[in-house]
């Protein structure tokens, strides 16, 4: 009898995700959305599988930690949670190398003109442990 495995039952070691959390002043959300739209287009054109941007809707300060606390959220700001999906870490590295050479990204590297405080942004790369 052949053993059946479903996507839900196997750990995925193949996909890789870059995750980001950052504070955006509410008044800058339209500018951030435009910037993120272009960034998403560039990442996808260079091979990213998915590019997702989310704005906080139901996040409250916690007793010890939370999304608002993690970015030292100030009055008038909202938390943005984003991620980019790749085939693997090697694929991520390859895509990001191409993205960083894309001239459309250069304005986004100027921390003085960003529509958010980049000093309070945090990010990291993650191996997908389970993809159900």
Which oligomeric state applies? single chain
Point out poorly predicted stretches: 1-12
Sheet/helix structural class: alpha+beta
Can you tell me the CATH topology? Alpha-Beta Plaits
Order of helices and strands: EHEHEHE
- Taking all Cα atoms into account, the compactness measure Rg is 17 Å
Assign the CATH architecture.
2-Layer Sandwich
Largest sheet features: 4 strands, antiparallel
Structural shape: globular
* Strand residue percentage: 15-25%
How helix-rich are the residues, as a percent range? 25-40%
How many domain modules? 1
The number of helical segments is: 3
Q: What topology, given as strand order, has the largest sheet?
A: 2-3-1-4
- Kindly report how far apart the N and C termini lie: 25 Å
Mean pLDDT: 91
Tell me what you see in this structure.
With 132 residues, this protein is an alpha+beta fold. It has a single domain (21-126), classed as Alpha-Beta Plaits (2-Layer Sandwich), CATH 3.30.70.100. 26% of the residues lie in helices and 24% in strands. The protein is built from three helices and four strands; from the N terminus they run βαβαβαβ. The chain is globular.
